[in-house]
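Run folding on both entries below.
>entry_1
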Amino acid sequence: MEHANEIRLVLGIGVLVFVSVNRSAVRRVPAWNLLLTAFGVLLVAWSVAVVEGYFWRELLRVAKHTCYGVSAVLLAVWCWELLVRRREGAGAPGSSD
């Protein structure tokens, strides 16, 4: 039996604990709340993947893939915020960058 989903979930929970312990350092990352939301949605997807093996297979599969998509969009928006928007603001008068 393959246990990839369970291992992925345990590793994700470990990252969540690490992020919680290092909260002040994480808050220094630009748009940190968007990044953590993307990770949280991904963690939900990994949790659903584990439960999916036991019941409501089709419904939970849709939920899992929806979470993957939402997480990817949030991560893309975070990248845009980090790279494009910060670069645009760097040359603006009165900006602190």
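>entry_2
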Amino acid sequence: MDLRIRVIFIFLLLLFTQLCGYSQNNLIPLADADSNFVRKHILPNEIRLFYGGQGNNISLGTKREGDPTLNGAIYTNTNDYVGIGITYKWIDGDLSYSLPGTTYLKEERSNLTQFKLGLSYTLRKLAFRGYFQESKGVIVSGTKNEFLSTPSLHEVKLGLQIIYIFNASKYSYRASLYQSELQMKTAGSFMIRLEPFYRNLGSQSGSMIPTSWDVDSRFGEQTGLEYLRAPGILFMPGYGINFVVPNSRLFISPVIFAGVGAAFNSYQAQTGKKRNTNLEYAGSFSLNTGYNGSRIYSKIQFNWNAGYAPLKPSYFTSNNIGLSLWVGMRFGDVENFIPSSL
């Protein structure tokens, strides 16, 4: 907790030192955007550091015991993480790794490790973001926390988010997520996100369900479930808006998506290998707020993601919340520092 307090203090200190005035002299207009709403920093590239904490719940339930419910107990898979990112021209990349010993669980259940990598390419109307996430030591719980698996599950997620921005001339998606542009006036836009994905969740020691709960009357064909693999695709309409405090660099940028898709599941259970195609439902909300300075910027980022994947009769739900602090510094093009004689 002491480390978190120090990080928040550094954020407030950076914010205070930057709030000394407002100037447009270090901004340049963009040919493909309304300069009254969106401008670009003179220093086009960035390097950033971030620190945060997250809570995640993956629950396995069954419709034989009632309607599906979303488990709000996000402490079953928790950790703090640290990361680094870079923006160069139109490419953004971020990677993070979990910090050991930062969990609310007992020591014998706290071996969760995570690695995340994201790469983005953002145009005015289109944004592409590829991601990879690997988690080891994952726990699956019942929907009412009636059971917890051993902390030995392995989860891999990868995918590509393709986002179309309707009001791209006035709303800057880059200003919202990466602060590599500046939103001059408040503006928003409807968006559409198409997301092909692949996920793999499995155990290396038999069924992921504790023995006393792993019965046919509850889970049917998913009794003895050892792994679940699923390529799929999601279609998610959404909306984002950048709120700007007049004559300042302060911003508040919420983005929300929600939609439906399909997953093509294959899994190993007590009765052998099975396949199942089903609809999936997902939603996400992110909020970035901070100071978008000409050389240094800082922000606090909040993320929430949820999903529902039915298997008949069982189903998985996921619920993830994260809070992080970001500090970034801008720099010029590297090629400008290379001697022309080389």
